[in-house]
Write a structure and sequence with these properties.
Layout lengths: L2 H17 L4 H15 L5 H6 L13 H13 L3 H9 L3 H5 L7 H11 L4 H9 L11 H17 L3 E2 H16 L7 E3 L1 H4 L4 E2 L1 E7 L3 H9 L4 E7 L3 E6 L4 E8 L4 H9 L2 H13 L2 E4 L2 E4 L5 E3 L3 H7 L15 H6 L14 E2 L13 H10 L4 E4 L14 H15 L6 E9 L10 H4 L4 E5 L8 H13 L3 E4 L17 H11 L2 E5 L9 H9 L4 E4 L11 H10 L13 H8 L8
Parallel strand pairs: 4-7, 11-12, 12-13, 13-14, 14-15, 15-16, 16-17
Antiparallel strand pairs: 1-3, 2-4, 5-6, 6-7, 8-9, 9-10
Bound molecules: 2'-deoxyguanosine-5'-triphosphate, calcium ion (CA) (2 copies) and zinc ion.
């Protein structure tokens, strides 16, 4: 079992314990264990097998958890989890994903109605029975119904970064098979879409058929959906992500890659263009209509070129004007991850981050960055131990001090300042004036009506110390839509005031969404791509933000943190002297 899966077993047991109302201390120990295991660089299974070592050496794993881990390795579950599953069926966990329902409510619903499924919950709301329970009412029923509808829409999709971890695992697995040449992930994954429905993997080489056989015998494949000569489909892991693997001949690899990368809409557009030019395009190649001769197929470039087009980067293949642009040689030169020179949104143990200022700075330096901004939370986020004015100014002093220690990158003092309900900044202007890079973000009162939310964001942009608007729509992928506001007005105002729009690279946000990025760019807005890291490993999420920016047609010049340090300072202006 992979660490990720072990972590999931622990986390879901913690959730069930919470529904059962058990001791918060024990619940927390499972949660801590889950996150320790998920982030652990070595496989837990390997450590368990090694008699000379003990998992209790991993921070966050005590004796109790260690014996649970032993059990998991032996039989895929552990006693505590089995007990919990006897009391509450696993469908109760699904209910936790419905907004507005916490563990206590779920327990109450189970105790009163013996309902533990989403369908059952929906019925309770429709029959107006939920409101008969203490502290629940008609408003909650409405909210739950809305949330169920949204949950259904997103169910069965997976975050891009999860798909990436599976794609990597499989690339390594197939790469070890003799005679396998190319292993390439296509589909929405290759297009960098924020969520994927399934993973499409293409394999070439004399070992490709063997790879299909091995795929369906992969230790984490739980359900084989189909296996033929050229294709196998299966669900992997506890999460049940579907993976389609195809074995392809080398001479049509480009055509297949093009076809299976999609999107469907892009492919339709491209096929129509081919027909008008006297060709037919399929997953086997580009053929002349008159004599069925294959004229292209080995590479994608060959296909696009023969159709009179520049090669179109996968992120643009959504039939949103990219085919015409490619025909006129007008595709933007898209930003790439290597263009990024700094990361301007991250947290430390000063608020809710899990690493110290120094650890974060060193990790960023090791990534080769020229500069970063440390942006811990402000006091409105009391749960995150947000900073008040005094702490913010004092911490800024520590940050600037660090610049004198010769770390090899420039550290800007910053803050992720909460935007209050009325649009005012959470901290006084005097304190904000002491900081180099203030990101303003909404974290509460997200259900305001559109005009109120628009005014709130416009007011935030008016604050002269604000450099960027953090995760501007507030969406959480597969979980919560962005809030309602007049995006165009906000984007225009940000452009005018020189406030950057953040593209938050955190895999569960990827906020701004690509269509809004494109809209804002046409309004003249500029952008910053930031990881919002709460741990050094999150700094590696930058490429998800870059993929999102590419899907929004951005070039390096649209994104401020592609600038070299001196130019960056000039561009954001008014940064305080570092004391160097
Ligand atoms: P997903 O998996 O829902 O995130 O989205 P995709 O784009 O990966 O879709 P998927 O896995 O169904 O198919 C992969 C690509 O294969 C798709 O983008 C285009 C191509 N494709 C699959 N089925 C069809 C089809 O029936 N018609 C056309 N034109 N293309 C198809
Ligand atoms: Ca797919
Ligand atoms: Ca597929
Ligand atoms: Zn935030």
């Amino acid at each position: 079992m992979e660490n990720r899966e072990i972590a999931q077993l622990l986390a879901e047991t913690a959730d069930l314990m919470e529904i059962a109302g058990e001791d918060p201390f024990r619940i927390r120990s499972y949660r801590n264990g889950a996150s320790a295991i998920e982030g652990y660089p070595e496989r837990i299974e390997d450590i368990l097998k090694d008699a000379a070592r003990s998992v209790t050496q991993i921070p966050g794993i005590g004796k109790g958890l260690a014996s649970a881990l032993e059990e998991i390795a032996q039989r895929g579950s552990f006693e505590r989890r089995d007990q919990m599953l006897e009391r509450y069926p696993p469908t109760a966990l699904e209910m936790l994903k419905i907004q507005g329902l916490g563990p206590k409510s779920i327990r109450l619903i189970w105790e009163h109605f013996r309902v533990s499924t989403i369908d059952g919950l929906e019925r309770l709301c429709r029959e107006q029975k939920l409101r008969t329970l203490p502290r629940m009412g008609a408003k909650l029923e409405e909210k739950v119904l809305r949330s169920i509808a949204q949950y259904r829409q997103s169910a069965g999709r997976f975050l891009l970064h999860f798909a990436e971890s599976v794609a990597r695992e499989l690339a390594e697995y197939f790469g070890q098979i003799h005679g396998v040449e190319k292993v390439t992930a296509a589909g929405s994954f290759r297009r960098g879409k924020e969520t994927v429905g399934d993973l499409d993997i293409l394999i070439t080489g004399p070992g490709a058929a063997e790879a299909l056989d091995r795929f369906v015998r992969h230790p984490r494949v739980h359900e084989v959906l189909g296996k033929g000569e050229n294709k196998a489909s299966a669900r992997m892991g506890l999460e049940g992500l579907q993976v389609d693997v195809r074995a392809l001949p080398e001479e049509s690899f480009g055509a297949a890659l093009q076809y299976f990368t999609g999107s469907k809409e892009h492919n339709i557009g491209l096929r129509n263009r081919a027909l008008k030019m006297g060709y037919t395009l399929s997953e086997y190649g580009l053929f002349r209509l008159e004599d069925e001769k294959r004229v292209a197929g080995k590479s994608e470039e060959e296909i696009y070129t023969t159709l009179g087009l520049e090669w179109i980067p996968p992120e643009l293949r959504e039939n949103q004007g990219e085919i015409d642009a490619a025909g006129q040689g007008l595709l933007p030169c898209l930003i790439a991850t290597k263009d990024i020179r700094g990361d301007l949104h991250m947290h430390t143990t000063e608020s809710d981050g899990r690493a110290t200022l120094l650890e974060m700075a060193e990790a960023a330096r090791d990534l080769g960055y020229e500069y970063i901004a440390i942006t811990d939370h402000s006091k409105a986020l009391a749960m995150a131990n947000g900073l008040d004015e005094t702490r913010a100014v004092e911490f800024a002093r520590q940050v600037r001090q660090l610049n004198q220690d010769g770390l090899g990158l420039r550290i800007f003092s910053g803050l992720e300042c909460d935007i209050r309900r009325d649009g005012k900044m959470d901290l006084e202007e005097d304190a904000l004036a002491e900081l180099d890079f203030v990101v303003a973000s909404v974290h509460g009162y997200m259900n305001l009506d559109a005009s109120e939310m628009t005014d709130r964001l416009l007011a935030a942009i008016e604050c002269r110390h604000v450099k960027a608007l953090g995760h501007p729509t507030g969406r959480l992928l597969l979980h919560r839509d962005g809030f309602h506001f007049d995006f165009e007005r906000v984007a225009k105002s940000a452009a005018k005031r020189g406030v950057l729009l953040e593209i938050n690279a955190s895999p569960e946000r990827l906020d701004l969404p690509p269509p809004l990025i494109r809209q804002a760019q046409s309004c003249g807005a500029r952008f910053v791509i930031s990881t919002d890291a709460h741990h050094p490993k999150h700094l590696h999420n930058m490429h998800f933000g870059v993929a999102t920016a590419r899907r929004g047609w951005l070039r390096a010049m649209d994104v401020i943190n592609t600038l070299p340090l001196a130019k960056f300072e000039e561009a954001v202006g008014g940064t305080r002297d570092s004391g160097r």
